[in-house]
Amino acid sequence: MEEIKQILLELSREVKEMRNDISQNNKEMKSLREDVRTMQVNWEKEKLDLEEKITKTEEKIEKLEKDKIRNNLIVTGMRMETEDEELLRNTMEKKINKELSLNVKKKIRDFAKKERINGATVRVKYQGVEIDGRSWKWNKKEQKLMKVGEIKAPKN
């Protein structure tokens, strides 16, 4: 009988130890679950932040690509079989200046600037300028600015 009591006491102690171990394990599991939840929340926030940054970066890249395309000129009708960039650039500048009369616009601006320096009231217009109320137009034939009225109509 004494032996049975001993065994029961021993079993009782072991059960208490097991319960304590189980309780300790449950506390540890609860703590680990909370850590995992916290990590998941943090990862989710970080994932959303990174997705937002990626989206913004993609939008910036797309905008830069569109701007790059928009700022390019495509010239047709001109054959150039050379890889010399300087020659290409010079030829294109001459062609653009000739076809678009860009030098004309620059000459008009320079003329207007000189008149402003001299104190005149100047307003630049399309292919011309108005100085103190008097109009000047670009004469293509003469390749210079002339007062309106001095320009002769071309003969047919």
Give a short summary of the structure.
The protein has 156 residues and is α+β, with helices and mostly antiparallel strands. Helices cover 65% and strands 12% of the residues. The radius of gyration is 43 Å and the shape is rod-shaped.
Query: What summary fits the major beta sheet?
Result: 4 strands, antiparallel
The average pLDDT value, as a whole number, equals: 85
- Enumerate the strands of the largest sheet in spatial order, edge to edge or round the barrel: 1-2-3-4
Q: Work out the helicity level.
A: 55-70%
Structural class: alpha+beta
Number of strands: 4
Question: In what range is the share of β-strand residues?
Answer: 5-15%
Radius of gyration: 43 Å
Query: Could you give the distance between the termini?
Result: 142 Å
Task: Give the assembly state of these chains.
Answer: single chain
Order of helices and strands: HHHEEEE
Unreliably modeled segments:
none
Anisotropy-based shape: rod-shaped
| Count of separate DSSP helical elements | 3
Key terms for this structure?
156 residues; single chain; rod-shaped; 12% strand; alpha+beta; 3 helices; 4-stranded antiparallel β-sheet
Task: Provide a descriptive summary of the structure in words.
It contains three helices and four strands, in the order αααββββ. It is an alpha+beta fold and 156 residues long. Strands 1-2-3-4 form a four-stranded antiparallel sheet, covered by helices on one side. The termini are far apart. The model has no long low-confidence stretch (mean pLDDT 85).
